[in-house]
Write a sequence for this structure.
C-alpha cells in the first residue's frame, strides 16, 4: 500500500496498524507536505454493525473537538477497494511521539514524578472531554492511548489518542449510560463490564494505566489486586492514596470528576 495515493491527496508512507477490516496508515498530505494519519474501515457484509457505528462516532466526535493534546480531524471520504468493496477514510493530524506501551515493551518504568506529569496531562484532556455538552467519554485509556512527545520531562507534551471507543453520554442521573462493552480488558472499569460507563470510568482506566507504567506489569500480570499493588510500591503516601482511590472498584469511591482528580494530584507534598 506504500506509495498509493488516496483521496487524490494523501500518499501512503507505511502501515501503522491493522486488524480485521481496519487499517491505520501514515501518509503525506501532498498539498501541505505534512504527515497525517489515515484510518480506514472496509464497509462490506463482514463488517459488524457495532464496528461501523464506533468508527462513524469517532469521525463525528473528532470534528467538534479542539484541544492541543488531541489529534485534529481534517476530513473524511470514501474510496473504492478491490472486488467492488468500499472503505471509509478518516484523516487526522499526525501526533509525533512514542506511546507508553512502546516504552514498557522496552522494559522501561517511570518515576513517581514522571507519572504525575503524565497523569496531569491526561486529566487535562479528560476535563475538556467531560466538560463537553453532552460529556464525552474516552472509554479506552491504556498505555497505547497515551503518547509522549519526548521521554518524560518538564517539556514533554502528553497526547491522548485512539478515540475509536469514544461516546457522548446522554444527560442522566450521574451521567450514566448503558452501552455495548468496549475498551481493553484489565484497563476498563468494573462497571463497564456490565455495559455502564461513567466519567469516573475513565479515571479508573487512567489509574490502571499509571499502575502499569510504574510497575511495568500489565493488569493481568500484577501480583495482587491493584489497590494492594499500589500500597506495596515505594510511592509517597499521598500519591499512593490518590492512585488507590482512582483504581477503586466502586466508582463512588473515586474522585468525583477529572478536575477533582487533578486538584488532589497537584496538592503539594508536606515539607
Amino acid at each position: 500500500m506504500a506509495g498509493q495515493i488516496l483521496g487524490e491527496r494523501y500518499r501512503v508512507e507505511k502501515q501503522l496498524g491493522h486488524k480485521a477490516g481496519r487499517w491505520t496508515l501514515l501518509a503525506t498530505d501532498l498539498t501541505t507536505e505534512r504527515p497525517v494519519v489515515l484510518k480506514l474501515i472496509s464497509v462490506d457484509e463482514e463488517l459488524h454493525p457495532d464496528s461501523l457505528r464506533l468508527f462513524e462516532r469517532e469521525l463525528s466526535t473528532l470534528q467538534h473537538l479542539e484541544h492541543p493534546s488531541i489529534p485534529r480531524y481534517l476530513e473524511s471520504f470514501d474510496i473504492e477497494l478491490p472486488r467492488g468493496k468500499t472503505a471509509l477514510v478518516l484523516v487526522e493530524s499526525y501526533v509525533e511521539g512514542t506511546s507508553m506501551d512502546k516504552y514498557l515493551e522496552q522494559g522501561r518504568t517511570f518515576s513517581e514524578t514522571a507519572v504525575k506529569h503524565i497523569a496531569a496531562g491526561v486529566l487535562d484532556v479528560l476535563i475538556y472531554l467531560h466538560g463537553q455538552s453532552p460529556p464525552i467519554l474516552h472509554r479506552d485509556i491504556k498505555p497505547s492511548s497515551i503518547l509522549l512527545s519526548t521521554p518524560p520531562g518538564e517539556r514533554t507534551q502528553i497526547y491522548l489518542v485512539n478515540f475509536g471507543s469514544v461516546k457522548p453520554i446522554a444527560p442522566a442521573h450521574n451521567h450514566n449510560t448503558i452501552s455495548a462493552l468496549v475498551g481493553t480488558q484489565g484497563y476498563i472499569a468494573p462497571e463497564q463490564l456490565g455495559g455502564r460507563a461513567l466519567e469516573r470510568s475513565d479515571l479508573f482506566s487512567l489509574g490502571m494505566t499509571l499502575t502499569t507504567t510504574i510497575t511495568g506489569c500489565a493488569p493481568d500480570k500484577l501480583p495482587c489486586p491493584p489497590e494492594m499493588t499500589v500500597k506495596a510500591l515505594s510511592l509517597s503516601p499521598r500519591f499512593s492514596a490518590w492512585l488507590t482511590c482512582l483504581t477503586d472498584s466502586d466508582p463512588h469511591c473515586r474522585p468525583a470528576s477529572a478536575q477533582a482528580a487533578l486538584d488532589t494530584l497537584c496538592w503539594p507534598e508536606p515539607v
About this structure: Residues 173-178 have pLDDT under 50 and may be disordered. Residues 5-93 form a domain with the Phosphorylase Kinase; domain 1 fold (CATH 3.30.200.20). Residues 231 and 241 are 8 Å apart (CA to CA). The helical segments are 49-62, 100-105, 112-130, 190-193, 199-215, 226-232, 237-246, 258-265.
